[in-house]
Amino acid sequence: MIGFSKQLLISAGLIIVLFIPLIINAQTDSTKAEAPATEKDSSLISPALEFISTQKGDNSIDLAATLKAKVNSSFIKLPKLKVTFYQVSETGENELGFVITNGTGLALFNYKADSIATDKEGKFHFKAVFAGNKTIEAAQEEVSFKRARLEITPVKEDSIQSVQVKLIDVGTGTEKPVPGTLVGVYVHRMFYPLKVGEGTTDENGETTVEIPNKLPGDAKGNLNLMAKLDESELYGNLETSVTQQWGVPVSDKLQELPRALWSEHPPLWMMVTFIILMCTVWGHYLVIIIQLFRLRKEEPDPDSPTAERIS
Amino acid sequence: MELNKYQQEIFDKQRPVIETFGAKTWRWTIFFLFWILLGGYALYLQIAKGHKVTGMRDNVVWGLYIANFIFFIGISYAGAVISGILHILKVEWRKPIIRIAEMITVISTIIGPVFILLCVGRLDRLHHLFLYPRLQSPITWDVFAIGTYFAGSVIFLYLALIKDFAIYRDAKLNIPKWKQKMYKILAIGYRGTHGQKRHIRISTNLMAIMIIPLAIIVHSVLSWIFGMTLRPGWHSTIFGPYFVLAAIYSGTGVLIMAMWVYRKMYNLKSYITDKHFVYLGYIMMVLGAGYGYFTFSEYLTDWFASEKWNSEVIEKLFNPAKYGWWFLFANVAGIILPIFIVAFPKTRKPVWITIASFFMVIALWVKRYLIIVPTLESPLLPMQDTRMEYVKYTATWVEWALTLAGVATFFLFYTLLSKFVTIIPISEFAGKDQPVVTARDISEENEIVPA
Questions:
Q1: CA A24/CA B75 separation, integer angstroms
Q2: Cys-Cys crosslink for B75: which of A162, B29, B233, B254, Cβ 3.0 to 4.6 Å?
């Protein structure tokens, strides 16, 4: 019996010894499971970085990066964050500069295209990088597009006003017209450009779009006409503009509102009625008050008996 | 000042009232002061913590305070219209009751606008109303109209008091010196000369003529604060005359109640006779019928048109689970009860007429509440934040305390004023150069003797 007891004790001891590594291992495993959570804190906000480029008519490039994040199923703009812009080439990344995002989460960087080189296909490659901070994760985005130029020329024949738009590929060093591309023509308005027409470029890379007469312009009748190529797979976004005195002059001075219920000054009839009513009533009050002052000065009637005192 | 025997009799009857304050009056004064102090504490809380201590929120921005404001301006019609019209028509039986009416007018015109001040959030900018008035706004019209109306009411009351002040001045009353001095100043040297009588007669006639259109304008303007907006239940062309009629109606009710109280309190049965109650009861019945007609017309057109937003308000007023019972009370006690009480000879008695007036006045207060709150609880634009306290208005104890304080102030002022001047005007009863209409004639013979 004693031998059996010993065997039982030894067996139990062995089982415990055998299970110790498992227990330790299980503890280690649970530690391992927590480790990634430490590395990537789930409370961090994952931002979305939108990066678009626009080749301008003055040979510059607008690099626009917008930072936003989805919080509670809706997107919020992320302001006051640093976005760094790079030109990417075969040799590496060349930092161009940085911009702090504005209230709408936009960081707009303008760069002269002549000062940077294209790759052998005539393309530019840019990268926008947000390095992240304590609460927001890092994010980056790249764009690539071939270098091109959009030209706009105002043409006026008789009473017809139009603009001639020309799209030229300049990526390979030589100017090459781009045919068969849809280009839109816009007029700059207070908030957004207003589309007035569009046309497809011919074999010379040209298209003509008529501009309507009598569009309201500024005080001198100037219209800011704009040609745009949007989201081309090869060239990205392109735009160029020209100012032409084709609009109807509209004074930018604040016009005085007419007398009305909603304006600063009331309608005249209302003023007149109010003044007449007030003067009539208060005039009568004045007459009565003057009468009351006269009471005091009234002499007793000569024929009346002396005032009798009440006892 | 020379008094005829009837004037002397009336004066002797009321002399103790203005000579002594009395323990009973002190008790009432302390009682009113208690409510005023409670209101003062509520006002302190409202100023210290802001309007969040009231039930008013973004949506229901008007509540008890504005209902009280309309109510008090309404009862001010007692003196303005009742007294003004009866004066112009030279109705002789008016004489014992006109002072009660005119005092109601002045005091309620003081109390009413105070409720506007309680409702305004930024009292520190109150002077902007006068510095930068916007003439297109009905609120501005109201400020000027009520200011003008108050000035007119004070002048009207004062004109009727000058002769009596001269009587008090000359009567060698057993009163403190300051009171004697006050009577002397306020009598402005009146000695009863022909010229002085003429001046006062002309001025009083002028004011009696003016006070009527003025009162009508004031309450019309008040109604336009509601009527000029496009809100359901408010945008109505009949709101002007509807408000005016309701105001005269409630003013008559308060006048009857005040008559009953003073008749009982100072034993003035020989001057404020049963006939006064019956005559005012008749006026109340006619006004009640007119008010009922306006009410029916107003709600019938809204109900018949079935316009969405109006229907929503109508539904709230007719639904017993919402404001249905209050609406029923406002119409039964405010229209049907007074008409029936006065219509039947058996109930055409001072006590019944007074009871009907009491319920009618309460009903008209409820009616003002029902004009304001259900409409504000039915916004034209859907609300983004629909918390229950935004959608549904419930007055807080602060608002109730200030409301009771307003009522207590009204009673306190009335009590104090009735200790300063006699409730029955002495000089109004004919002098020796006029045919005498005596209180005895009115009370004993129930006959009206023309002047």
A1: 89
A2: B254
- A288, A297, A311: best mutation site toward chain B, by most B Cβ within 10 Å? A288
How far away is chain B from the Cα of A73, in angstroms, using its nearest Cα? Answer: 19
With CB atoms and an 8 Å threshold, state whether B162 touches A282. Answer: no
Domain layout of chain A by residue ranges: 47-146, 148-244
Domains and CATH numbers, chain B: 5-21+60-378+419-439 (1.20.1630.10)
Measured over the CA atoms of residue A115, residue A120, residue A124 and residue A128, the dihedral's sign is: negative
pLDDT band at A310 (very low <50, low <70, confident <90, very high): very low
What's the DSSP call for residue B228?
T
Task: For residue A43, give the nearest of A71, A78, A67 by alpha carbon.
Answer: A71
The whole-angstrom distance between A263's CA and the closest CA on chain B is 9
Topology classification of domain A148-244: Immunoglobulin-like (2.60.40)
Type of residue found at B323: Y
- Strands of A92-100's sheet, edge to edge? A92-100, A82-89, A123-130, A139-146
Give the residue among A137, A138, A139, A79 at the shortest CA–CA distance from A107: A79
Closest CA to A292 of B182, B427, B156: B156
User: In the prediction, which pLDDT does B123 show?
Assistant: 84
B5: nearest CA in chain A? Answer: A310
Chain B residues with CB-CB distance to A307 below 8 A? 1-2, 170, 191-192
Residue A36: both structure tokens together: 């990634």
Instruction: Tell which residue, B164, B110, B422, B81, has the closest CA to residue B271.
Output: B422
Q: Average pLDDT in the A239-247 region?
A: 92
CB-hemisphere CA count at 13 Å for A92? 3
Q: Which top CATH class is A47-146? A: mainly beta
Given the structure tokens 């009640």, which residue do they identify? B288
CB A163, CB A209: distance < 8 Å? yes
Instruction: Give one DSSP letter per residue of A194-206, joined into a string.
Output: EEEEEEE--TTSE
User: Which SS3 state, helix, strand or coil, does residue A139 take?
Assistant: strand
Q: Which residue, among B34, B28, B27, B39, has the nearest Cα to B405 in the 3D structure?
A: B39
pTM of the model: 0.68
Three-state SS at A86: strand
Q: What distance in Å separates the CA atoms of residue B318 and residue B325, rounded to the nearest whole number?
A: 8
Nearest in space to B72 (alpha carbons), one of B422, B409, B326: B409
| Residues 292-311 (A) with a CB less than 8 A from some CB of B | 292, 294-301, 304-305, 307-311
Q: Look up residue A265 and give its amino acid.
A: H
- Distance CA(A171)–CA(B334), nearest Å, equals 90
Q: Are strands A236-244 and A47-56 parallel, antiparallel or unpaired?
A: parallel
Q: How many CA atoms lie less than 13 Å away from B128 in the CB half-sphere?
A: 8
DSSP state of B344: S
DSSP string, B201-266: HHHHHHHHHHHHHHHHHHHHHHHHHHHTS--TTT--TTHHHHHHHHHHHHHHHHHHHHHHHHHHHT
Whether A243 and A223 have beta carbons less than 8 Å apart is answered as yes
Distance from CA of B194 to the nearest CA of A (A): 7
Phi and psi angles of residue A90, each rounded to the nearest 5 degrees, phi first: -65, -30
Q: How confident is chain B (451 residues) per 10-residue block, as mean pLDDT? A: 81 89 92 96 94 89 94 85 82 88 92 92 86 89 91 91 92 90 92 86 89 88 90 91 94 94 89 93 95 95 89 93 95 96 94 97 96 90 69 92 96 94 85 42 40 33
pLDDT, tens digit (0-9, with 9 covering 90-100), for B416-448: 999 999 999 998 776 444 434 444 444 444 433
CA neighbor of B164 nearest in space, from B188, B185, B191, B187: B187
